[in-house]
């Protein structure tokens, strides 16, 4: 398989800066949440610096320590961290615009906030400030203070229990490719009522709370209450956007549902944990490989705003994150070329946010990729 020694050049004209912030707060369940966040942002010059390190080696090692990976991957190599990024640590914020719009990225369960480096860098190069959070218990990361946080054993065990649950497996065996809307919605309802999903809803709700807290933190940075390069530079009045991969897609939908500061969201090959009966009241886009429509049909069935469902063929689940470039094991990759997959995900994501946040004429329905089909567009009830 083809290997890469560097991520692709960003699509936009801005040089991309990256900075890391540690935050902590007490969540609604009274747990102390100690998080980190990588912020990608537009800059005018790399200032002669070397590119940012992709992922800390200690974080990479933690991936192989997760019980779910020990059991299912059996020490198979999945990805490498020996790759050059296209962003630079702690640059000055670009002076080309007074303020810049804000997006959030949520990685998949058990993953790392750095797993979205390519899409975060692409979006920042076009003028967005993009925040990727390390979520306690459900992801892995190294804080600036040096402490390491891995996905918890409970999270890994719950993930394994979900994978092996007889009721889930029985339902999965009945999933149809390209089902009619009624069949898909009923299958989604049946899946969401499984007792095994209760724990995942709790994890996703805590991740959504993390996002809302970090959004609060950004408001403090913008106001100058906390000192940073972002004082008076973040554009909030048009709304923020959020995109999540896999488990992170459910978090993105919850954030849209619960926080009016967010204008729209995207799920990349994600499900609908905790969204039974939820009207997001926000435009939402789903990119997925079939038969995943069965896992998220309830979102559009309930959403009073536009919901776009795009089916993408010849892809694997991890193709929606950086592993499309860092993979060292072809069994975890789909059939599409890595650059084509990156262009596809970035185009749909950017066009969607440009339209619903920046009010540009850009449209996801105007994009044309072989094997990408609009299954359904709902909304405006």
Automatic annotation (TrEMBL):
InterPro entries: AB_hydrolase_fold (IPR029058)
Single GO biological process annotation from the record: lipid catabolic process
Keywords: Hydrolase, Lipid degradation, Lipid metabolism
Entry keyword annotation includes Hydrolase: yes
One Gene Ontology MF term: 1-alkyl-2-acetylglycerophosphocholine esterase activity
Protein name: Choline esterase
């Amino acid at each position: 398989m083809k290997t890469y020694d560097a991520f692709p050049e960003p699509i936009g004209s801005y040089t991309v800066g990256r900075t890391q912030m540690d935050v902590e707060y007490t969540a609604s369940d009274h747990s102390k949440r100690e998080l980190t966040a990588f912020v990608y942002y537009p800059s005018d010059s790399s200032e002669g610096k070397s590119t940012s390190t992709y992922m800390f080696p200690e974080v990479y090692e933690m991936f192989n320590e997760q019980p779910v990976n020990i059991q299912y991957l059996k020490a198979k190599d999945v990805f490498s961290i020996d790759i050059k990024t296209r962003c630079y640590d702690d640059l000055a914020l670009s002076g080309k615009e007074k303020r810049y719009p804000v997006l959030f990225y949520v990685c998949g369960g058990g993953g790392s906030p750095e797993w979205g480096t390519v899409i975060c860098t692409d979006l920042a190069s076009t003028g967005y400030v993009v925040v990727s959070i390390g979520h306690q218990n459900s992801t892995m990361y190294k804080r600036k203070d040096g402490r390491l946080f891995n996905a918890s054993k409970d999270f890994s065990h719950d993930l394994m229990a979900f994978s092996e649950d007889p009721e889930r497996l029985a339902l999965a065996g009945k999933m149809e490719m390209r089902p009619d809307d009624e069949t898909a919605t009923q299958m989604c309802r049946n899946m969401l009522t499984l007792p095994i999903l209760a724990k995942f809803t709790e994890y996703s709700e805590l991740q959504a709370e993390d996002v809302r807290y970090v959004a609060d933190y950004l408001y403090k940075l913008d106001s100058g209450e906390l000192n940073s390069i972002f004082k008076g530079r973040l554009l909030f009045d048009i709304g923020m956007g959020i995109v999540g991969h896999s488990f992170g897609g459910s978090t993105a939908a919850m954030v849209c549902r619960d926080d009016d500061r967010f204008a729209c969201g995207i799920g990349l090959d994600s499900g609908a944990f905790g969204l039974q009966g939820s009207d997001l009241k926000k435009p939402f886009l789903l990119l997925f490989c079939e038969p995943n429509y069965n896992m998220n049909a309830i979102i559009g069935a309930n959403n009073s705003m536009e919901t776009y469902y795009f089916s993408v063929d010849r892809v694997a689940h991890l193709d929606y994150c950086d592993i499309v470039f860092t993979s060292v094991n072809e069994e975890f990759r789909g059939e599409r070329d890595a650059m084509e997959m990156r262009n596809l995900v970035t185009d749909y994501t950017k066009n969607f946010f440009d339209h619903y946040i920046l009010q540009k004429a850009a449209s996801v329905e105007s994009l044309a990729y072989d094997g990408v089909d609009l299954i359904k567009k709902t909304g405006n009830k």
